[in-house]
Specification:
InterPro entries: WGR_dom_sf, WGR_domain, YehF/YfeS-like_WGR. By secondary structure, this protein is of the alpha+beta class. The chain has one helix and five strands. The model has no long low-confidence stretch (mean pLDDT 95).
Length: 77
């Protein structure tokens, strides 16, 4: 499996971004970090959560991606 996964979305009209990073932390625990904010300012926020395994992490990432698309965001490749 990969050591990390990252996906980013942007909303052109609202000028917002959303990013998800999944990677092990220094202790070997698998972490999901979600970051969001404005494309026009340095302000934003983030949330870190521990996930039990890669399968759960990728399922959660898929759910987040569907929600972002439903809200008008575009996946950045």
């Amino acid at each position: 499996m990969n050591n990390s996964i990252s996906q980013s979305w942007s909303h052109a009209v609202k000028r917002r971004y959303y990013r998800v990073d999944i990677a092990p932390d220094l202790f070997g625990d698998l972490c999901m970090v979600r970051s969001w904010g404005s494309l026009d300012t340095a302000r934003g926020n983030s949330k870190m959560e521990l996930v039990p395994c890669w399968q759960v992490a990728t399922q959660r990432l898929e759910q987040i991606g569907k929600e972002r698309l439903r809200r008008g965001y575009t996946l950045i490749i």
